[in-house]
Specification:
The chain is of the alpha/beta class. The protein has helices spanning about 10-20, 40-50, 70, 75-85, 105, 120-130, 150-155, 195-200, 240-245, 275-290, 310-320, and strands at about 5, 25, 30-35, 60, 70-75, 90-95, 110-115, 135, 160-165, 175-180, 185-190, 205-210, 210, 215, 230-235, 250-255, 270, 295-300. The two termini are about 30 Å apart. The structure holds threonylcarbamoyladenylate and magnesium ion (MG).
């Protein structure tokens, strides 16, 4: 792990970005892998560092709502309403891109993803840098997103010029993404801001592309993402003890319940918070801890199928997906 790249020097970080280097930056959601959104060579470095397919588009981070017009065109009223209400914050808007925006950022699409992150260091970085910063989550492709500077150092320490240390991320899971280019605003990725909250601001019902008849889509059709290397299984609370007690498989457990005193097998048992905000805050750090134990499997007790948990359930389902 290359801790010597970790810094709180915003001016140094801005200089690195201006000279085409990669800088990891903190946000309220997860850490981003930053590069100058106007520099194609720097953008290519992001894809190389992550091992990310080139058709996976990147989010552009900006500092001021007024900068939206630098990157997007045909901006609907709904975008201004949402920006006004939720920015800086964990909401990403998909809009029509300006013609000058590099196809490297958008994966060749005519749309662009934009947000203002809510972290004082990164807002300062964006101000000093003076333009847009592309930033996927600062992890290797498909792996667990980082919520601390140390997580970034472990994954991408060799690839970045600096890691701006903003402490643990408050929210802990990636931003909600809403597509505003279709006839109806549609949530494309679940996050801390719910479709209901967005609908309240817009005064209309907002659909989620992953939702059918209010049911949460379960594993199978999901691509593996946010995934530990250790096989990870989501387990119904009632089946947890039977799974843990399998003598042929070592395991670690994330459960809402306390470790039963009668449990005969040796396992690492972590009792996690029943509060969804706290659970999300801790989730990726917990997954990393469990992954590093290198047991045969990580067993995660399924959270309740309630609205407050759907973004977390989405991430857990992907973490447990083998597709
Ligand atoms: O919270 C977050 O959004 C974090 C922080 C660093 O801002 N970033 C993040 O980036 O999660 P990333 O690259 O890991 O995820 C961005 C998602 C991808 O699923 C990508 O496909 C989608 O945004 N995306 C980006 N541009 C898009 C576009 N033009 N149309 C549709 N989806 C887009
Ligand atoms: Mg990511």
């Amino acid at each position: 792990m290359l801790n010597n790249k970790i810094t709180s020097d915003v001016t140094l970080a801005a200089t690195y970005l201006k000279t085409g280097n990669l800088v990891a930056f903190p946000t309220e959601t997860v850490y981003g892998l930053g590069a100058d959104a106007n520099n194609p060579t720097a953008i290519l470095k992001v894809f190389q560092a992550k091992g990310r397919p080139s058709d996976h588009p990147l989010i552009v981070h900006i500092a001021q709502v007024e900068q939206l017009t630098d990157w997007a065109q045909n901006i609907p009223t709904t975008a201004w309403q949402l920006a006004q209400h939720f920015w800086p914050g964990p909401l990403t808007l998909i809009l029509d891109k300006q013609p000058h925006v590099s196809p490297l950022i958008t994966g060749g699409q005519a749309t662009i993803a934009i947000r203002i992150p809510n972290h004082p260091l990164t807002l300062e970085l964006l101000q000093q840098f003076g333009s847009g910063i592309v930033g996927p989550s600062a992890n290797k492709y498909g792996r667990i997103s980082p919520t601390s500077a140390a997580h970034v150092a472990a994954d991408l320490g060799a690839e970045v010029a600096a890691i701006l240390d903003g402490g643990m991320c408050d929210v802990g899971i990636e931003s909600t993404i809403i597509n505003l280019t279709a006839a109806e605003p549609t949530v494309m990725r679940l996050g801390a801001i719910s479709a209901k909250q967005i609908g309240k601001v817009l005064g209309c019902a907002v659909k989620t592309s992953q939702q059918q008849d209010n049911q949460i889509r379960t594993s199978g059709s999901h691509l593996s993402h946010y995934a530990p290397r250790t096989p990870t299984i989501l387990v119904d609370p009632k089946q947890l003890l039977a799974q843990v007690s399998d003598p042929n498989r070592s395991c670690s457990v994330l459960s809402f319940q306390a470790k039963p005193t009668s449990l005969a097998v040796n396992c690492y048992w972590q009792t996690v918070s029943m509060d969804p905000a706290q659970y999300a805050h801790d989730l990726y750090a917990n997954l990393r801890t469990h992954d590093n134990l290198a047991t045969s499997q990580i067993l995660i007790e399924k959270p309740p199928q309630q609205e407050a948990w759907i973004a977390i359930l989405d991430r857990l389902t992907r973490a447990a997906s083998k597709d």
